[in-house]
Amino acid sequence: MSVMTVTGKVNADSLGWVLPHEHAFIDLRALVPAPHNISAKVLARENVSLANSGALRRNPYAVLDNAVIDDEAVIREELLAFKQAGGTTLVDLTLREIGRDPALLARLSRTLDIRIVAGCGYYIKATHPPDMDEKSVESIAEEMLTDIRHGIDGTSIKAGVIGEIGTSEIIYPNERKTLIAAAVVQRETGLGLHVHTDLWARNGSEVVRILVGHGADPGKICINHIDVDIRPDYLKELLDQGVYIEFDNFGKEFYADRRHRSVLKGLFARDIERVLAIKALIDAGYGSSLLVSNDVCLKTCLHRYGGWGYDHVITNIVPMMEDEGITPEQIRMLFCDNPAAFLDDGK
């Protein structure tokens, strides 16, 4: 009953309060389409500031600087706030091509005395390397197994979770190939498997069919980002297949204007709507299959830049949950028991 962190194995029951889906360092600038007019080009070159914070609430990628988190000193402060709020474990799902740095994660873990679990695999098609077409299911699986058994990017720092494996609004051939490889790896290792799904698509069941069809344990699959466009019937459809679903956009209450033709294209649910959906699912008997996180992936998610920080779900959302009648025992289930069960490799 253990979990591999970036500093070694720990008992699954020692993880404490867990953020199961975050990014300490990330660079999503390659995903951002070119600005479509002169004023947008000017805005894109700015740094994140109070002056452009309003624009970023409508289009979080209007300023390219918002799409990268890479300042170790800032992240140290932000994670310290999480620790001081009672947090003890963070799962970093940043993958190759978008800023993964296992050595930095290990340094943060040791400096702050918090547990960090690193992911492995490939994100969405738009971030795939140029040779992705040539990679086979077997070679992708072997890459992940190397990260898990020997170390990431030539280090001795091992991955302790699979993902977040990327899928888009449709599942592209190379994304499907990566899903199949992830299923093979999950079957061999027993690790939890995170899957990124498009925020407004509802193709989670297709993802589950692919994974389970290639041997993955449904009880170790988590479908991410189901809390932007909350559809209760869709959530129950997923949960009835025995998988986890993750409410991981707490703190993001954007209206992403489609006219900006950027990465995000639509309305985000509010935090209170997320809490109410969680309460309804707990009441319906699905509480043990829910994960909760912030998915910090933008500068404006951080305290330093006017956001709520990694500690948001503990500092602000837990009291909101209590106000809506979610009990202390259920809160512990959401933040401690469920992520520990998901991450436990069974060894």
Automatic annotation (TrEMBL):
Q: Does the keyword Hydrolase apply?
A: yes
**Pfam families xref list:** PTE (PF02126)
Keyword ATP-binding among UniProt keywords: no
Keyword annotations: Hydrolase, Metal-binding
**UniProt family annotation:** Belongs to the metallo-dependent hydrolases superfamily. Phosphotriesterase family.
Enumerate the PANTHER family for this protein: PHOSPHOTRIESTERASE-RELATED, PHOSPHOTRIESTERASE-RELATED PROTEIN
What protein name applies here?
A: Phosphotriesterase
